[in-house]
């Protein structure tokens, strides 16, 4: 797609957003705010005060968003639906500083502020994902589209002090809707769309007397996908079925004691993802070599082209299948002086992945060796996890200048992560299980113990400070499986994660703050490097420094928030080349830094017309002597390399961190049209997002290209009924959602240096109809 065409598409998107405004001025204004259903309708001033309707719990207590000295993006359930946000990829498009990539549900990797997870298949992420503050311990169990949500909070910067593990770069918290004793109610939504999309989800709230209520929710979804597989004629990137069912019970045992119980079960059957493996004959840079008996370049440079054909074995490659369960119980006691909260949670997940990563119809008949073909499948054999978590917290009342909180936490987790490469038997028929060629991984068990606390003090009515601290001891043990069977390892991490903030309430509508926070991500084990100094790797750390403001202007009509930050990232966990061999493993490999600025703006031009804009500028760079083992073979910088000449190096200091974007912005416009007919209201909105391209590797030689998306929605409300039409990727942007670079085993890599690139396309335009009933 040419740059001119992209420019025209962006201009069209902006024109549509502008059209929302022009149409609004042509019609009479009325008092209805489309941003959230919780706005008080009493007066225009109250409608326009957006800070009143956004309440978050990012600091373990309820606070207005505009009063919290943190960079937070909070979206209500109504806003999620209006923007068409159904996945973490959608959420990232409209959250400044957040990026996301996955493989149709597997290897989910949210990235905040350029702090990308260097080990793409590792079990521990850099961003912690939670449900109601309960950690999700499996990267394949992060979908939220069928949960009964009240809102989603994205909290940026290290949150280890209050949230604990794996919040190295920040937190994404799914907050579920409460069970309410005030009355019977619920909602039901049915969706029908193109590409075979059928969805249904809903929730029912049932009071059981004056002190007990139950909320039951569930959903089912089927979607064929949007990319045609030329080999089978079927569509790729969809799912045969996804479903979830859960319930929440709230019981007011006494006026002071409340018990919350929650449970949810989810099942997933995602299809073979769409991907195109670029033939190694098209490599055009890196180094020159002999691979598979022919002269080749080792790398593909430049801006990646959007694939036009896909040929995958979607019979043998069944995609991602599995299920997950999460349960928790929380008891909350409100005392005269101290409040007490006790939490017990358990989660488990089991997933299996088998996907065709060759993408070549001739591979099954092309000999490799030993009766195997070049038909390669990637197989996550045992992606399983369990997690027990226990937390006890004491907190003071918020009615004085001095506030405090103290707690203890214990957790016991297990993650089984075995990744295998399967080469299919020469000439095998589709559906035949391919034999394992190589595998690595094992079972990582962690027992964690922590004490944490917070103190806050108001020096004056406008000046306050807060300090948080968590001290953690994590005991890890590892048992190898597959080719690493019998490998055993143990290590212990002891670390402190403080956070401090100074806050100045310049006036009731302006908060200025400065923070410093430390994040720690514990190390782990390399199953394929047993009995060497590279078997275990250590923790990585970062200090994040942030200065920002939050303001509410024009009698609440305008909300403007912005911040600048600097991240000092040390001992990054990155691939390191083992001297004297071709193997690279995870190790603490140099440092990195990120500088950035983020901003968000919401403007209610009239009571019926709203605009919003957000954006981020980032500068994520390697520094401190990073020699990236992920690309060393490409440049011939490994022992036994057969590379002839090289024009690249694995010394990547100063380069942009792989798989990060350095610019992104989003625009939105919404217009509410009251009284179109008797008892009928209407609305229309458009949401546009743009994200700069990501480099696939630290070499910064391969660009995945920008992502430019326009979503739109229009609907009618008939009292408690609503009918809406919607479209996502309205302008049919042909974008690349993910690209990975791996050694070409079929071309004698990594010794030959030859790599190949897998390109995962983004979804094409989808559209549909939502029918919703609320009662």
Keywords:
775 residues; 22-stranded antiparallel barrel; five-stranded mixed beta sheet; 5 helices; 43 strands; globular
Largest sheet: 22 strands, antiparallel, barrel
Question: What is the number of helices?
Answer: 5
Write down the Rg: 26 Å
Coarse structural class? mainly beta
Topology, number of strands: 43
Strand content: over 45%
* Envelope shape: globular
Q: Which stretches of 5+ consecutive residues score pLDDT under 50?
A: 1-53
Share in helix = under 10%
Distance between the termini: 47 Å
What's the mean pLDDT score? 89
Characterization of the model:
With 775 residues, the protein is mostly beta strands. Helices cover 6% and strands 56% of the residues. The chain contains 5 helices and 43 strands. The chain has a 22-stranded antiparallel barrel. The radius of gyration is 26 Å and the shape is globular. The two termini are 47 Å apart.
Short description:
The protein is mainly β. It has five helices and 43 strands.
Give the secondary structure arrangement, pairings included.
Elements lengths: L2 H23 L18 H5 L6 E2 L6 E2 L7 E5 H7 L4 H6 L4 E6 L2 E7 L14 E5 L2 E2 L13 E8 L3 H4 L6 E7 L8 E9 L3 E11 L4 E17 L6 E18 L4 E14 L5 E2 L7 E7 L2 E6 L2 E2 L15 E16 L3 E19 L15 E25 L5 E24 L10 E23 L4 E18 L7 E20 L2 E12 L2 E2 L10 E2 L2 E14 L4 E13 L2 E5 L6 E5 L2 E16 L2 E15 L21 E2 L16 E15 L2 E12 L10 E2 L3 E12 L2 E8 L7 E8 L11 E7 L4 E9 L1
Parallel strand pairs: 6-9, 18-38
Antiparallel strand pairs: 1-2, 3-8, 4-5, 6-7, 8-9, 10-11, 10-43, 11-12, 12-13, 13-14, 14-19, 15-42, 16-17, 16-35, 19-20, 20-21, 21-22, 22-23, 23-24, 24-25, 25-26, 26-29, 27-28, 29-30, 30-33, 31-32, 33-34, 34-36, 36-37, 37-39, 39-40, 40-43, 41-42
């Amino acid at each position: 797609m040419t740059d001119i065409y992209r420019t025209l598409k962006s201009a069209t998107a902006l024109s549509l957003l502008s059209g929302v405004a022009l149409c609004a001025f042509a019609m009479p204004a009325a008092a209805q705010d489309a941003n959230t259903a919780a706005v008080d309708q009493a007066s225009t001033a109250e409608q326009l005060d957006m800070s009143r309707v956004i309440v978050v719990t990012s600091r373990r207590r309820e606070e207005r968003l505009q009063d919290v000295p943190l960079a937070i993006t909070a979206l209500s359930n109504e806003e999620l639906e209006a923007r068409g946000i159904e996945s973490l990829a959608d959420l990232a498009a409209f959250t400044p500083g957040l990026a996301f990539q996955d493989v149709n549900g597997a290897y989910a990797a949210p990235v905040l502020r350029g702090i990308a997870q260097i080990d793409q298949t590792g079990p521990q992420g850099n961003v912690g994902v939670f449900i109601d503050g309960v950690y999700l311990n499996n990267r394949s169990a992060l979908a939220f589209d069928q949960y009964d949500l009240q809102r989603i909070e994205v909290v940026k910067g290290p949150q280890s002090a209050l949230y604990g593990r794996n919040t190295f770069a920040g937190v994404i918290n799914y907050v579920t809707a409460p069970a309410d004793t005030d009355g019977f109610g619920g909602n039901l939504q049915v969706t029908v769309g193109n590409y075979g999309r059928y969805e249904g989800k809903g929730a029912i709230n049932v009071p059981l007397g004056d002190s007990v209520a139950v909320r039951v929710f569930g959903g089912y979804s089927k979607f064929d996908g949007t990319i045609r597989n030329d080999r089978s004629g079927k569509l790729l990137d969809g799912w045969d079925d996804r479903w979830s069912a859960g319930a929440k019970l709230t019981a007011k045992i006494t006026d002071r004691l409340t018990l919350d119980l929650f449970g949810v079960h989810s099942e997933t059957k995602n299809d073979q993802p769409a991907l195109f493996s670029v033939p190694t004959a098209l490599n055009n840079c890196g180094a020159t070599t002999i691979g598979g008996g022919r002269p080749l370049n080792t790398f593909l440079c430049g801006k990646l082209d959007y694939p036009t054909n896909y040929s995958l074995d979607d019979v043998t490659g069944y995609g991602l299948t599995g299920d997950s369960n999460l349960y928790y119980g929380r008891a909350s006691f409100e005392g005269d002086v101290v409040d007490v909260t006790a939490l017990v949670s358990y989660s488990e997940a089991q997933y299996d992945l088998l996907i065709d990563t060759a993408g070549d119809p001739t591979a099954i008949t092309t000999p490799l060796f030993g009766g195997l073909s070049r038909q390669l499948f990637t197989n996550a054999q045992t992606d399983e996890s369990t997690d027990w978590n226990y937390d006890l917290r004491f907190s003071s009342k918020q009615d004085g200048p001095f506030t405090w909180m103290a707690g203890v936490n214990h957790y016991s987790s297990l993650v089984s992560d075995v990744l295998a490469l399967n080469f299919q038997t020469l000439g095998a028929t589709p559906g035949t299980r391919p034999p394992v060629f190589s595998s690595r991984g094992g079972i990582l068990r962690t027992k964690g113990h922590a004490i944490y606390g917070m103190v806050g003090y108001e020096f004056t009515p406008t000046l306050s400070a807060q300090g948080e601290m968590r001290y953690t001891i994590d005991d890890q043990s590892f048992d190898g499986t597959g080719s690493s069977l019998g490998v055993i390892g143990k290590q212990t991490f002891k670390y402190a994660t403080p956070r401090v903030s100074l806050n100045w309430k310049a006036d009731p509508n302006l908060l200025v703050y400065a923070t410093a926070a430390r994040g720690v991500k514990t190390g782990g084990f390399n199953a394929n490097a047993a009995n060497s100094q590279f078997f275990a790797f250590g923790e990585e750390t970062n200090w994040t420094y942030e200065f920002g403001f939050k303001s509410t202007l024009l009698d609440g009509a305008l909300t403007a928030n912005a911040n600048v930050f600097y991240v000092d990232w040390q001992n990054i966990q990155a691939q390191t080349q083992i001297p004297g061999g071709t193997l690279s493993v995870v190790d603490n490999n140099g440092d990195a830094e990120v500088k950035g600025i983020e901003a968000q703006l919401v403007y209610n031009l009239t009571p019926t017309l709203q605009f919003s804009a957000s954006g981020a500028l980032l500068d994520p760079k390697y520094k401190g002597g990073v020699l990236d083992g992920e690309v060393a073979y490409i440049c011939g910088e490994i022992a036994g390399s057969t590379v002839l000449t090289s024009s690249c190096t694995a010394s990547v200091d100063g380069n942009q961190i792989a798989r990060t974007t350095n610019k992104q912005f989003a625009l939105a416009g919404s217009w509410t049209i009251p009284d179109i007919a008797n008892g009928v209201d209407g609305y229309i909105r458009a949401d546009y997002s743009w994200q700069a391209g990501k480099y696939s590797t630290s070499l910064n030689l391969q660009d995945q290209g920008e992502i430019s998306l326009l979503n739109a929605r229009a609907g009618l409300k008939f009292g408690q009924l609503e009918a809406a039409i919607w479209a996502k990727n309205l302008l049919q942007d042909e974008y690349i959602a993910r690209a990975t670079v791996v050694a070409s085993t079929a071309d004698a890599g990594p010794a030959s240096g030859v790599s190949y690139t897998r390109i995962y396309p983004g979804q094409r335009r989808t559209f549909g109809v939502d029918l919703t009933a609320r009662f």
